[in-house]
Amino acid sequence: MTWRRFSALLLTLLCWLSWGGPAWADWTMPLSYSNAQLKGRDFSNQELQGSEFSNANLELTNFSNSDVRGAVFSASTMTQANLHGADLTYAMIDQSDLTGADLSDAVLVETILLQSTFDNTDITGADFTDAILDGAQVKELCQRASGVNSKTGIATRESLGCR
Q1: What distance in Å separates the CA atoms of residue 62 and residue 82, rounded to the nearest whole number?
Q2: Which residues, in sequence order, are CB contacts of 139 under 8 Å at separation 6+?
Q3: Which residues contact 145 (CB under 8 A, 6 or more apart)?
Q4: How many CA atoms lie within 13 A of 157 on its CB side?
Q5: C-alpha span between 140 and 58 (Å, rounded)
Q6: Which of 33, 41, 56, 96 is most exposed, with the fewest beta carbons within 10 Å of its own?
């Protein structure tokens, strides 16, 4: 790309931004809650794409119907968290404790879930399409997988590849 073309593109972008810009220019920096104590907090119905919650205490936290695509929950305690209907596409929920959590009707497409714990987790209608899980996790989840995701129309058993 020539300097003249680059300058013209940059000038166009600056003009768009000064006039309010295109819809895609209305963005904010993701929030960081790493290492935070967030027990019982209400994040329901929020736009939290790309936010970071790694190594956080999210026990009893409410993320129901929130957009947390691409969020990072690595090594977090998420016991009894409410993630009903949350969009967790591309999220990282590795090494997290989801004991007693509600993942019903959640979208977990291409989510990394390695080494996470799912004891007594409600996965009714959750969509795990192309999620990264280890074999033991899939076996455990298939034992109680049921329902169809209301947003994607994919059955939980199908998304996990249950036999």
Answers
A1: 5
A2: none
A3: 123, 156, 157, 160, 162
A4: 7
A5: 23
A6: 41
